[in-house]
Design brief:
Distance between the termini: 63 Å
Number of helices: 3
Shape: elongated
Strand order of the largest sheet: 2-3-5-7-9-11-13-15-17
Protein name: Leucine-rich repeat protein
Radius of gyration: 19 Å
Order of helices and strands: HHEHEEEEEEEEEEEEEEEEE
CATH superfamily of the domain at 101-234: Ribonuclease Inhibitor
Structural class: alpha/beta
InterPro entries: At_inactive_RLKs, LRR_dom_sf
CATH architecture of the domain at 101-234: Alpha-Beta Horseshoe
CATH class of the domain at 101-234: Alpha Beta
Organism: Paramoeba aestuarina
Keywords: Signal
CATH topology of the domain at 101-234: Leucine-rich repeat, LRR (right-handed beta-alpha superhelix)
Signal peptide: 1-16
Length: 235
């Protein structure tokens, strides 16, 4: 299988992207973790050539991977998201030691939950091409940088956690998803006057602590955490 994986990778690099639909679920999963250095934390003591026996991998009746939950698995290295099976609905890799960049473009259309918080990821991320089905994204407690665009989030999104990173610049929160309940941008060097007059009625929690964001917000039925920012809360 390893020879075949090397062949696929070489083809991808030299001839363009390989159609994921033409590859088996087993091959896709092996490609996904090819740069994880301690794969035994995924395989366990089971058979590495049978993903049905991998730790915390759930498959549907058609033997397609729908859930990957490798949180708190002490994983090191990087995931190659180009090979994340298109059937995956839940992908959770929080609280590990994963490094490198993290490309959020081209994710599976079926994806609903993506949790990668508390790792060692760096670089910029784009929030403008997320799957329309995505409900929850946690990219907190990493070292992501750059500006963040919050005006093109999926309509289905309920939770967005980006706290404790190095995001900078101003933010536009006038076009947040109407179903959004939780927004955490705290402990980022964000700044600038912000318009809080168009927040969704669904919002129940917002954290902007330890930022340089300014503006005035009217407290409604929402838990607001603004300590260390320049935001004024009006009761």
């Amino acid at each position: 299988m390893m020879v075949f994986i090397l062949f696929v990778v070489c083809c991808d690099l030299s001839l363009g992207r390989v159609d994921k639909a033409s590859l088996s679920q087993q091959t896709l999963m092996e490609l996904l973790i090819q740069n994880i250095t301690n794969k035994e934390h995924v395989y366990g003591s089971g058979d590495a050539t049978d993903i049905a026996k991998w730790k915390k991998v759930r498959m549907n009746e058609m033997h397609e991977v729908i859930t990957i939950d490798w949180s708190c698995s002490q994983l090191k290295g990087a995931f190659d998201l180009r090979w994340l099976p298109i059937s995956v609905i839940h992908f959770r890799i929080s609280i590990n030691y994963c490094t490198g960049s993290f490309d959020l473009t081209g994710l599976p259309d079926a994806l609903e939950n993506m949790w990668l918080g508390d790792n060692r990821y760096t670089g910029e991320i784009s929030l403008t091409c997320l799957p329309t089905s995505l409900r929850s994204l946690d990219a907190s407690q990493n070292a992501f940088v750059g500006s963040i665009t919050l005006t093109q989030l999926p309509d289905m999104m309920v939770s967005l956690f980006l706290h404790v990173n190095r995001f900078s610049g101003s933010i536009d929160i006038t076009k947040l998803p109407r179903k959004l309940k939780e927004l955490d941008l705290g402990e980022n060097p964000l700044h600038g006057e912000t318009d809080f007059h168009h927040l969704p009625d669904s919002l129940m929690y917002m954290n902007l602590e330890k930022t340089n964001i300014s503006g005035t917000i009217i407290r409604k039925n929402c838990d607001l955490y603004m300590e260390g920012s320049k935001v004024k809360i009006v009761e």
